[in-house]
Amino acid sequence: MTAVLEAPSESRVSSQVALWRLLLRDWVATGAALVLAFVALVAAFGPMFVGDEAAQQNLLDANAEPFRLSDGWLNVLGTDALGRSVLARLIVASRTTLSVAVPAVLLSLVIGSLIGMWAGYHRGRRETVVMRIADIILSFPSLLMAVVVLYIFSPSSANLILVLAITRIPIYLRTARAESAELQSRLFVDAARTFGTRSSAIIFRHVLPIVLPTLLTVATLDFCFVMLSESSLSFLGIGIQPPSVSWGLMVAQGRTYLQTAWWLSFFPGLAIVVTTVSATILASWARLATDPAQRWRLTLPRGRRGRRAIRRAAEKALTPEVQ
Amino acid sequence: MLSPPSPRKPLLIAAVLGAALIVSGCTVANSEYVTGGGAGGLRIVLPEEPPTLEACQSSLTSTGVVLRSNITEPLVERDADTGELAPKLATAWEQTSDDTWTFTLRKGVTFTDGTPFDADAAAFTIDRAVNSDLGCEVEGYVFGDTDLDVKAVDATTLTVTTPEPDPILPLRLSFVEMVSTKTSTTEKVRVPIGTGPYEVADWQSGQRLSLEANPNYWGGRPGYQSVNYVWRAEGSVRAAMVTNGEADIATSLAPEDGAGELAVAYRNNETTALRIQADQPPLDDIRVRQAINYVVDRNTLVKTLFENLATPAGELIPEGIVGYNPDEKVWPYDPAKARELVAQAKADGVPVDTQIRLIARTGQFPRIAETIEVIQSELAKAGLNVKIQMMDTNTQLTYQIRPFPEDTGPYLLMIMHGNQAGDAAFTLDQYMLREGYQSSWGTEEFDASIRDAEELKGDERQAAFEKLWPYEQEKVVQYAYIAHMSAILARSASVSYQPDSATGDEMRLAEMSPVS
Amino acid sequence: MSTAVMSVHDLTVDIETPNGRLRAVDGVGFDAVQGETLALLGESGCGKSMTAQAIVGLLDPVASVSSGSVVLNGTDLVTASRRKRRAMAGPELAIVFQDALTALNPVYTVGTQLAEPFRIHRRMSSRAARAEAVELMRRVGIPHPESRVDAYPHQFSGGMRQRLLIAMAVALNPTVLLADEPTTALDVTVQAQIMALLKELRNEREMAVVLITHDLALVAEEADKVAVMYAGHVVETGAVAEVFSDPQHPYTKGLLESVPVHVARGSDLASIGGTPPDLASIPSGCVYQARCPLARDRCVAERPVLHQVAKGRAAACHYSEEVSR
Amino acid sequence: MTGFLRRRAITSLLPLVAVLLGVFFLARLTGDPANLYLPVSATPEQRQQFIEQNGLDDSVWAQMGDYLWGILHLDFGESLRTGESAATMALRAFPATLQLAFSTMLIAVVGAVIIGSWAAYRPNSIADRISSFLSMTAASVPDFWFAIIGVWIFAVGLGWLPTSGVTGGMASWVLPVATLVIRPLGVLTQVVRGAMVSALSAPYVRLARSKGAGDLRVVTHHALRNAAAPALTVAGDLMVGLVNGAVVVETIFGWPGIGKLMIDSILGRDFAVLQACVLLTAVSIFVLNILIDIGYALLDARVREKVSA
């Protein structure tokens, strides 16, 4: 009955166009996408323009207040305890932050979900083993792991990513396992199985598309968790080593100044929050937009008044045609 | 120096957030919440809970600050301001032979468990702390592997004999806190029995420690009947507790913690410095070490990051320690000279491009991270390849104390040295001798002059020590001294107390009293 | 005897899509008569289920009734308040859904779910409602209802689940019962049992049944009247026997010719050429023009309205006389 | 069910041992603690003596043997730092953590169910957008901001609450719990909302409506229980995090919980205490996981059958 909503005749190109149009209709999601694009651009090109400024210390102009243009536009967000421009540091930090947080989240997402889906699909002993391993990682003090890495290896981005990824794997593993265990008993999986499809193919073709939206939602929320964990590791010395800088490190270092120079940790914190919230908004939008059964929600005019207005307009437009 | 938080913004936010709490029916908090102490009680908030109050561990800062001169007392006590020794449980002492000191003990003192304090108790305590297998902190800290021969001649006379003549034995013994003979000799105890003005009344591990005034104290009643210690790791919370009236004294604050007008800054004995691992190229070239000294802008650091609470340093001990050189020469800031020196070394084939690690301990002192970043930036400008590495305490200590890890490559280590003992010998043995536990390098001549100076007494000793500092700066250059540091505590207006340089190790409750 | 208990008039349903608004149901009208079964017949996508959903007020939020009325016992369901509708859902109007497995709540026992109508509308105690549930289960032919009342939906077979859905729908003796493809997922023997049960209950409780289906055979056996739907429009109505023996709309005729029983042995089985139009591209004239063998200029220019072609019969075709020939 | 519990307990035992051994070995990889516990001027002899006294010179296998032997006799060793029994220290800190964790989860779950269901009831509506936005923000704001700013406003600025501590009755719970609840509340609200959106569009909800069930009944009776499983999974993960200790809150508010104790013992290389803490939290996490499995079974008969099969 609702076949029309699934628009089976639409070609791939036009469905992409429709997706864009759908996005543009939703101003909140559009805004989120713009923010993310902006962050990505800043991370990619920003350091080229302000790289030197971010390292330029000026102890005599330390902790200058934000929102004053008298010291030039670079200091518009104030300066830090060493008189460096907070704005320039935010820009430089965006690259470090993304280059640690994104790989860490992706790594844990990919490993966790693959193992989780595999375990959930096969159930039985494999599932038990995998779940118990997740239990082990979860009940293991992640800080100890960090200290071990710090002690045996040297703190580097790669090690940082590794530590962060390992501690987050169980989250995806458990989520993926739960959903895939539920799915493996469904009819369409049975059907695929009776055709003799290999289990890996079933997992990728039938289980993954259904589990992925949930996993992506978890991942976007985890994004901020990872950014903040990275900052807490810097207290131990395993985090980003200065003079490199990340948002997490800025938040961590600025924390002691919350009362006297709030801008030191407020702006990087805001950057983390805004980025995460944008990612989450876009993820939940994408989740609706790519799910044929839920997509219609996005087309729903908001509020009763809006709906009535649209209906009236539509009636006017349609009336002559019908009669 | 300490800008108080602007009161407007929080109030505005509070007005919004507050509504929720009014609904939940919260009542107005008062100071009783935290300490539970009634009127007349003194409330002190420390950065961490004392791990133990075992008397022979009193050289641990977090133990000593509660224990020393409050619960237990030593034979002699060092005056932090003058450096002179003052009588405590011993009324007099003299060197009766080259290797023996004789102490006359105070009469009529009893421990809080009723046992009398006499020469037997003193001998028991010293044997327990120094000669036993307990592995006491004090033993390692002040006596090394020296065993003492202790004898109770009569009830009030004690002789202590050392294998080698020791001109500063009484000073060393000022670290040994006297405990009752009923104390276990086979294991450490958590709560000691002492002779001090206070005794432990209640220790709720993790929450609070309460002391009550010792009713039979030999030295008169202290200003407060009871004292409550609590601990909070966050400096701003400690400061807030005092400004909020939940505590009377808060220690170990940073300038930005927000204690406002209640903040009291005081000189402690700590001096910060970079130790240069001078056996590793390119740091084995003296020009590189000199260059490092030239680029540390001590004056600006002190003026800005340390908020004028420190003074630029040219030696490892501050004023007030025997051996301090009052004509302290501080390296000038001269980046051009530094670049030139590095360039010269490079021209002579010194591998100045080798990566040098700049190692620091997280939380070693307020604004350590900022300080390290400033220094790294300056060193890089001088043409050195310097990488910062922050470490946790245990890891950093492996780099600080011999035996050093192997194959480390060159590194600069941020150290902070506090000479609690009051005599430069403690510093020199550790930090200056070629094989000193915390020294990376030195010269034979320097070792010899240190050994010679340590044999001397009185003014000769002082004069000999004084000469060592300029010599180190000129000929050895193992260190880039940075600053003599200060500490901040918050003190409520109702308490009268003046901290001194020893307060961080030994906070004497008897010196505190209510403002009348 | 032939009292219309529910009249649907000019019912129009629109859907919001990313590409604009579509008309899924356009001016549909029919009467449900007490004790009779009316079949809404059509291919999938023709708007018959959406019509049912519009009547019971369970349209997806993207769809909305933009005009028309559904009058049941004197109340227009389209304009009635939510509260009023809720009060009528169950005692006056009930629906049997097609997919019994997903329609039953997996986490509750069937007893709890069967008892729900009694709890909501008659405010019965849980014990009394449970007794009613057992009674209902017995009535719809579930063996050992006392022991099975605490079982969960997944513990029943497909046919049993459908019986449970029917039991739930007839619990409060509704005036009108909508059955939306009630037998689609079932095998033939079970299908027959379910339809027999429905008929029995209809006669016993004197309900008007609206049977929504794409199955011509089912309509022929079970229904008294039929309304044939195509692309959101009713194209032909009338008594089943008459419509099937003498279709007045080319679509009805095409449908009948595609079913083996209606074709003389030996002749080719016909099928309707083309596919139903996309809702987004319904032509302005006759909705069936693209597939109609009789289509001519007038069909492109002018949309035929449903008009009486014989007593009790109507068709929406300009050339209905030609069809029967 | 008992069969399930027995099997579950057996399969859980092995990971428990794995965690213990893992912690045991990894902890010893972080360097011996002699430097921390001996004065900097300690001689090599004293160092050696310390190492021997604490059994750190034995092979790791011998140390592990001692440790396991000790566990069998309920002897978990002594703290290097305080000289107290490690078990005593861990057991003393754990109730404080549990109290905090339970109160936090209770508030988070109740709040998330109410807000999440309300938002899911009209997906994409203004109310949904606002609550989603707030919960996402809540889930991504650094917790120590809340803590420090909370102290600053409510304790210092307004004087309504104590800055910190545990002995101040209910008032001293407000800031720690508020700080802790923010993230779980945000995350759970999102999860509940998502699950409720799909549950509310499920056919059984339609059936319920066709029976004349009102909005409240549809949400509370029909949708919520179906949406509970994913929420339970996430709530479980969040609870695991809380049981492992809320380090920020414990540090800032001086809450004597297990998180701070664990960090202190890691930094202090106080192996015995670390092992005791990990044993305690690992056991409770396994118990928690079993409770969650039982929760699934209670929610859904289909799971129940698989469990008892």
TrEMBL record, chain A:
Residues 94-283 form the ABC transmembrane type-1 domain. Its main location: membrane. The keyword Transport applies. The chain crosses the membrane at residues 27-50, 100-121, 207-228, 261-286. Pfam families: BPD_transp_1 (PF00528). Keywords: Cell membrane, Membrane, Transmembrane, Transmembrane helix, Transport. This is ABC transporter permease. It comes from Kineosporia mesophila.
From TrEMBL, chain C:
It comes from the Bacteria. The keyword rRNA-binding does not apply. It is a peripheral membrane protein. Residues 6-256 form the ABC transporter domain. Its main location: membrane. It is found in: Cell membrane. Pfam families: ABC_tran, oligo_HPY. One of its GO terms (molecular function) is ATP binding. InterPro entries: AAA+_ATPase, ABC_Ni/Peptide_Import, ABC_transporter-like_ATP-bd, ABC_transporter-like_CS, Oligopep_ABC_C, P-loop_NTPase. Keywords: ATP-binding, Cell membrane, Membrane, Nucleotide-binding, Transport. Belongs to the ABC transporter superfamily. PANTHER family: DIPEPTIDE TRANSPORT ATP-BINDING PROTEIN DPPD (PTHR43297:SF2), OLIGOPEPTIDE TRANSPORT ATP-BINDING PROTEIN APPD (PTHR43297). This is ABC transporter ATP-binding protein. It comes from Kineosporia mesophila. The lineage of its organism: Bacteria, Bacillati, Actinomycetota, Actinomycetes, Kineosporiales.
TrEMBL record, chain D:
It is found in: Cell membrane. Keywords: Cell membrane, Membrane, Transmembrane, Transmembrane helix, Transport. It holds the Pfam family BPD_transp_1. SUPFAM superfamilies: MetI-like. It is a multi-pass membrane protein. The chain crosses the membrane at residues 12-31, 100-121, 133-161, 226-253, 273-299. Residues 94-292 form the ABC transmembrane type-1 domain. Belongs to the binding-protein-dependent transport system permease family. This is ABC transporter permease. It comes from Kineosporia mesophila.
